[in-house]
Design goal:
Layout (H helix, E strand, L loop, with lengths): L3 H6 L1 H30 L6
Amino acid sequence: MVDLTELMENEVFMAFASYTTIILSKMMFMSTATAFFRLTRKSSPE
């Protein structure tokens, strides 16, 4: 089993974790922004 401190020192894992955080943050922001604009402009997904 890999120790957590060894995993945190791995550059590849840290890059993966950083990019994953960025992508998930962008997805959450874009879904909120899309819902806001659809509701305020009363547009339907059709």
